[in-house]
C-alpha cells in the first residue's frame, strides 16, 4: 500500500445525514479525475468523529460500492468507545476494505501503555491490517521512536499515518522498520516527506489536488526535483487559500463550483461566510492554472 | 443550585457494562455518608466519553432511581455527535434531572462561534437548564470573559463548571453575572475558589472527600478560615496520593477497601498496579484520620 | 520579611539611561502614599533584563539612598552571566539590601540540576538571604514540590517569589516549609494567595495599588472576607485596564497623570499609543474611586 | 552567502574565560577538516548568552584572526541590552565579519512591532548585512509569512536563520523572497530543508559533521537523492547520540577524544556524566564509519 491516498470529505444533507449522491460524485471525482491510489474513509476529514455509528457504516458501504477494484481502501474506525471501534472494524473488513486505521484515543490523557492496549485489542478483535493514525496536534498523544516501535510490533499493525512535521523521526522510523508503511499527513510538506522516506501520503487536499500530489510523488521517484518543487509550490498556494476559511468547508465549496454536490458540513462545523466564499473563488482558478 | 456536588464515578463490570449494584452503592455512599448536595452524572469522572449511548442512558436511569428527593442531579450530555447529545438531554430532562451540562465540543479545533452554535442548539432542543462544562486542559477550548458572557446569555444557560485555575477570571465572571452559578472544577483549590466567588464545586474526589469539601465550603460562609485551611490541607494530602496512580482508578480502589464494589475501569483505562495499590493503601488511613 | 512589596518600575530617559529624579519620585510615592512594606528592585517590572550591569548598580544605589530605615529591600540580581549576577549580589549586600532574589536562568533549557547549581553558586558566593524567583510563563522552568524542596534546602535560600497560579502547590510548599517565605506573584489573585498561605506578595501593580493590596492582606489576617473580596474586585478592574496597553507602560502613564515623572520605557518596549492612552485615562478615575 | 556554516562551539577554561588555544584548534578543525563554507560565531551553540560582553568581543577577534580569507563569517550580536548589541555589531563589522545576525529579543513577550523596531535600530546603527535569527522553541517568538516579509524589507536584512520545522512556510518564504538567504537551523532535517529551498544550513553538529552536511547539500544540487538520504541517515544516527547527553557538551567531549582541547562548558551548563561519556564513546566510531 503506497502512493497518494485521499482523506475523503463527506457530503452531508442539511439535517446531518449523508448525501449519498454527492458522496458518490466526490468518490468518482477522486478516482476518475484525481486518479489517486486510494481512499482513507472515516477520518478527521470525513468529519467522522461527529457522526453516529450507523452513519459511519453507511459511509463505508457507499464508498466501497462506488469503488474500482484496484483502488486501495482504508477505513478509519477509531472511536473512544472500544466496542464501537471493533464493530466498525469488523464491518469494514467484511466489506472488503484493504486496511483499517484508528486514531489514538483522545480527550483523556491516556498513558502509552493504555494506548498500546487499545491497539492490541483492536487488532486482536478485528484481525485485519491496521495503520496507526498519529495526529498529536489533535490528540496530544506524542510518541517516541521507541513507542512507535512497540506499536509497530503488534500483530496486524502495518504502518503509520504520521501527521506531524518531525521528518528526522520519520526517516528514523522508516529506516528501522523498512517493511512497514509510513504516510505523510502534512499535505503542504509532501515533497520533503517523500524525500524523507514516506511511502505515500494521506491528506484532505488531495480531494482537489490529488493529481498534483501524484506528480510530486512520481517526480521524487525519478529524482526530478525541479518538477517536484514547482508542483509543491503550486499546491501550497492552493492550500494557503483553503486554510483561510477552513480546509474541509473550502474543499466542499470548490467542489460545488465544479458542479459536484459536496453538500453541507456536519454540525457544529459552519459553512463559509460570503466573504470567505469570495476568497475561495480564487482557488478554482489557481488549481486549474 | 449550589454547594458540593460529586462528579460520580461509574463502576463497570469487566466486560465494560455498568455494574448496577456497585453504582447504587457508590450513589448511596455519596448521599448517606458524604452527604453531598448533588451528583454530576456522565462527566469525565464517569468515564462517560468511553461509553456508548445506551450505557449513558442506563447510568442516568439507575442514578435517578437511587436518589433522594432533595439531592440535585446534573446530567452531562455533551457528545461530539449533536443528535446523541440532544437525545440524552431529552432523556435526562424527562427522568427529572435538575439540570444538564455539556462539555465544549472537542477533538476538532472549533471556533468560538461554532461552540456557541453548539450550545444554542443543545439548549433550544432540550429546553432545560444548562451548565457549560469548560475544561481547557482536556479540550483546548479557552474562553475570554466576553466569550463566557455570550454563552451565559443563551436562554437556559444557568452557569459554568469552571475547570481552570484563573481565579481572577472566575471572580470577574461571578461579579458580572451574579445570577448565574459557577462551580469549581479544581478540588485541590476548593478553598480559594470558594473565596473567589464560586457557588459550589463539582469534583471527582468528593466521592471520598465530600464531607471535607462541605466543611470547607461551610467554613468559608462563616469566615472561619482556620478550619477551611486545615481541612483543605487534609484533602490535598489525599489528592496527592490519588493523583499518583490516577484519580478515578484510585477512588475505585479505596471504595473496594471500604467494602463498596466500585468495579472496573472502562477500557482502555487500566487498573492500579500492585505497587500503586500499595501506595493507595495509605489513602484510606489518611482519609479517616 | 512579609506583606506587600512593590516590584518597582524604572523611569528611563529617552536614551535608555535611568531618570534619577523620576525614580526617586516613584520610590517616594510607594513609601509615602502606598505605604508598602518593601520594594523589589531590578526584576522584570524594572525592565532590568534590558539594562546593562552599570545601570543595574545605579538602580540599586539610588533606591537604597531614597529609602527609609524600615522598608524591606530585595535586589533581583539574576542574569545569564553568572559572574555579573555574583557581582550584583555582592554590591546589593554591601549597599544594605535585606535580601537578594534571582530569576531562574532562562533562554537555554537548563536541567533542574543545572538550575540548582546556579543557585548554589550564587548563594555561596554572595552569602546573603536569597529568594528564588520562579516565573514559568517567562522562563519555561517549572518545578515540582520536590524540586522546590531541594532549592529551599540550600543555605541562605529563605523563600520563593511564586509567579504561578497553582495554589494547591503553594499551600503544600508553605505547609512543608513553614519557616520559609512565599510571595504571590499574581496580583489579580492576591486574595486567594493570601488565603492559601502566602506570606505576602510582590507585584508591579502595587506601584499604583499598594494601598488596596495592604487592605486585602490585612483583611485576610482578620478573616474579614467581605472587605478582602470587595477590594480585590476593585483592584482587578484596574488590572484589566492596565493589561490592555501593557502593565509597565500603563503604570508609567498613570504616574505621569499624577504628576510623577515615571519616564520612558527601555527599548524595545514601546510607549502607549494615543488610543491606549485614552483607554488608560479611565484607570486613574477607577483607582481613586 | 550559502552552503554549510558551523555554529561554532566555544571552549572555555574552568573559570569561564575563553580557552584561546582550544578555540583556535576548533576553528582550524572546522576549516581544514570539515571544510565548511563559513562560521556562525556567538550564537546559542557558542554559549554566548551566558558570556559577558568583553568575552564576546574576544571570541569575535580570535575567530577572525584564525580564519582564512574565503571563509564566510557571521557574528551573532543579539542581546537584550540593545546598546550592547549595537556595540558588538560595530565591532564585528570593523573586524571584517561578512554579516551580523541577531536572535529575536527574548524573556519578555515583545509584540511583533517591538521586535521589528529592535531590528530596525540594530540595522540602522550597524549598517551591515543582517540575518534574522528565528528560534521559536527558545524565544517563543513565532512569525507569520507576513511578519517575515516586514522584517526582510528592512534595509540591510539579507536573510533568516530559520530554526523551525515548518518547511511549507520556508518554501513560501524563499519563493516570495528569492533574493534573500534562508538557512536551515535543524541539522537532522538538512536534506528536506535543502529540497525545500534553503540556501544553506547553520548548525552546531557541523563542528563534527560538516563534511557530511556538505555532501548532502551538494548531492541535492545534483539531484542525487540516494546519496543525500544515505548521508542524512548517517548524520542522524550521530545526532541521536549527541542529543542524549546534550549536544554542546557531547561535541566538546568528542573533540577531546580527537585530541582537540574543546574545553569546559560555561556555567551553569554541566559536563557529561561518566555514564553519558560511555554513551558518547560510540559517537566517534559512528562518525568515522
Automatic annotation (TrEMBL), chains A, B, C, D:
Residues binding pyruvate: 45, 202
Biological processes per GO annotation: N-acetylneuraminate catabolic process
SMART domains named among the record's database cross-references: DHDPS
Keyword Lyase found: yes
Pfam assignment, any one: DHDPS
Alphabetical keyword list: Lyase, Schiff base
InterPro entries reported in the protein's UniProt record: Aldolase_TIM, DapA-like, Schiff_base-form_aldolases_AS
Keyword Ribosomal protein among UniProt keywords: no
Catalytic residue positions: 133, 161
Record-linked PANTHER family: N-ACETYLNEURAMINATE LYASE
Protein family according to the UniProt entry: Belongs to the DapA family.
Protein name per Swiss-Prot or TrEMBL: N-acetylneuraminate lyase
Amino acid at each position: 500500500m503506497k502512493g497518494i491516498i485521499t482523506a475523503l470529505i463527506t457530503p452531508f444533507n442539511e439535517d446531518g445525514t449523508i448525501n449519498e449522491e454527492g458522496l458518490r460524485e466526490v468518490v468518482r471525482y477522486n478516482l476518475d479525475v484525481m486518479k489517486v491510489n486510494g481512499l482513507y474513509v472515516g477520518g478527521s476529514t470525513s468529519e467522522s468523529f461527529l457522526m453516529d455509528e450507523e452513519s459511519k457504516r453507511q459511509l463505508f458501504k457507499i464508498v466501497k460500492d462506488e469503488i474500482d477494484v484496484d483502488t486501495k481502501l482504508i477505513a478509519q474506525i477509531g472511536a473512544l468507545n472500544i466496542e464501537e471501534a471493533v464493530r466498525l472494524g469488523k464491518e469494514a473488513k467484511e466489506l472488503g476494505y484493504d486496511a483499517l486505521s484508528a486514531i489514538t484515543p483522545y480527550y483523556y490523557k491516556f498513558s502509552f501503555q493504555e494506548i498500546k492496549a487499545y491497539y492490541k485489542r483492536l487488532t486482536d478483535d478485528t484481525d485485519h491490517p491496521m495503520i496507526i493514525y498519529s495526529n498529536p496536534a489533535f490528540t496530544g498523544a506524542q510518541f517516541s521512536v521507541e513507542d512507535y516501535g512497540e506499536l509497530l510490533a503488534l500483530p496486524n499493525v502495518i504502518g503509520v499515518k504520521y501527521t506531524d512535521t518531525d521528518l528526522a523521526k520519520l526517516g528514523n522510523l522508516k529506516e528501522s522498520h523498512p517493511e512497514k508503511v509510513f504516510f505523510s499527513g502534512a499535505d503542504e510538506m509532501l515533497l520533503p516527506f517523500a524525500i524523507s522516506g514516506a511511502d505515500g501520503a494521506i491528506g484532505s487536499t488531495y480531494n482537489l489536488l490529488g493529481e498534483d500530489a501524484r506528480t510530486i510523488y512520481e517526480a521524487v521517484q525519478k529524482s526530478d526535483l525541479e518538477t517536484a518543487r514547482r508542483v509543491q509550490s503550486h499546491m501550497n498556494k492552493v492550500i494557503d487559500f483553503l486554510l483561510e476559511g477552513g480546509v474541509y468547508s473550502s474543499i466542499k465549496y470548490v467542489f460545488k463550483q465544479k458542479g459536484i454536490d459536496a453538500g453541507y458540513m456536519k454540525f457544529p462545523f459552519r459553512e463559509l461566510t460570503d466573504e470567505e466564499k469570495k476568497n475561495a473563488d480564487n482557488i478554482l482558478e489557481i488549481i486549474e492554472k
